[in-house]
Amino acid sequence: MDRSSRESEDAFAGGAGGGLSFRAARALWWGSALLVLGVLGPSVLVAGMDHGWRAPVALGLVLAQVCALRWLARAPVAVLAVVAVAGLGVWVLLPTVTLTGALLAAQVALCVVSATRPRRVSVGALAAMVLPAPLAYGAGGPAGLAVYLLAVVLAWTAGQWRRAQRERARAELRRAVVEERARIAREVHDVVAHTLSVMVIQAGAADDVFTRQPEQARQALRAIETGARSALGELRLLLRAFRPEAEEGGVGEEQEPGPSLAGLDELADTVRATGMTVHVHREDATTGLPATVDLAAYRIVQEALTNTLRHADGADEVHVRVTSEGGCVLVTVVDNGRTPQGRGRTAQGRPVAVGAGRGLVGMKERAHLVGGSLRAGALPGGGFEVAARLPVERTS
After folding, report:
1. What is the pLDDT of residues 24-73, one digit of tens each?
2. Which residues of 366-391 are buried (b: 16+ CB within 10 A; e: fewer)?
3. 278 has which bridge partners?
4. Residue 322 main-chain phi, psi, to 5 deg
């Protein structure tokens, strides 16, 4: 993880009890210190001209508040208590300074407590800040009371707003991480499941004819080797696509193109090698598709063929059609399996319900990501159909 990522996580850390990054804490201290010195400092100097020794003491209390703000990001509750007591001391020494101005540092601390501490703690701090309200009323009447209460409530509300912002950012970060993990899992599943299914079937076939028909066994082993090399190539491409450099603009090494409908015949050949008859019909109008739609269509066909190999009971023929209609690419994969009410069986012999498993879910997700739709289900006369409709905005 790079430095910027760590700083971002530090900045979003907290919620119920976390802190801020070092840079944010330093900025908070400087900002609050300058605010207190710039607003309260001149007020104390002006009000203390005719109060002799009280002015230096009050000014010392102001400086004490500024120093206490140094730990505002680390211990805002303790800092709030210190600066509130110091602020009340300033007001007692120089009554001509408004209570709102004397407790300015406490209002800043209240804002930080509201933003970084649990709701019960921040509400308790708000209640504590309301307690001096009668003093504001005694010194400034209803107007002084209103100004003080308004300042305190605004400080607490500003902290709540900042807290909500941070929580939304953290939720977005978590959602992005979950979506990226799901995308990686879907890609790995699509790459590995098809090839492994073909390899398992080929290995079983090679074992059945190893002694009686060694040449056919060798062909199956060569098909296994070819499939394994193809899977390794796709995995390397997949891992390269997930590297940070690829997301930052692909510096240096050029990105290889991913699988597409142009490789549909090669994909069908890998399934034919298992003994399955595969009929492929693709219209010329489906060339030159956007990369996202092209990849989605390819993966849907690949997963549908994988499901046929793994789950279709007695299927020996599958039809793949890729056509164009009304600005959409239509992908249809139909097999002749004998499981009209389900899709294969579990290890215990129970039928697997239509729509179960990661494969069909992944196909539907791919279709939805490009704005399309997908339906899958058993046909009344036997067999299973996967039909996707993918909208296209052509690049040429």
Report:
1. 778 888 888 888 888 888 888 887 777 778 888 888 998 999 999 889 88
2. bbeebebebebebeeeebbebbbbbe
3. 318
4. -125, 110
3-state secondary structure the chain: CCHHHHHHHHHHCCCCCCCCCHHHHHHHHHHHHHHHHHHHHHHHHHHCCCCCCHHHHHHHHHHHHHHHHHHCCCCHHHHHHHHHHHHHHHHHHCCCCCHHHHCHHHHHHHHHHHHHCCHHHHHHHHHHHHCCHHHHHHHHHHHHHHHHHHHHHHHHHHHHHHHHHHHHHHHHHHHHHHHHHHHHHHHHHHHHHHHHHHHHHHHHHHHHHCCCCHHHHHHHHHHHHHHHHHHHHHHHHHHHHCCHHHHCCCCCCCCCCCCCHHHHHHHHHHHHCCCCEEEEEECHHHCCCCHHHHHHHHHHHHHHHHHHHHHCCCCCEEEEEEEEECCEEEEEEEECCCCCCCCCECCCCCECCCCCCHHHHHHHHHHHHCCCEEEEEECCCCCEEEEEEEECCCCC
Q: Is the CA virtual torsion 104, 109, 114, 115 positive or negative?
A: positive
Structural domains for the chain: 3-174 (no CATH), 276-396 (3.30.565.10)
Please compute, for residue 323, the number of CA atoms within 13 A of its CA located in the half-sphere on the CB side: 9
pTM of the complete model beyond 0.85? no
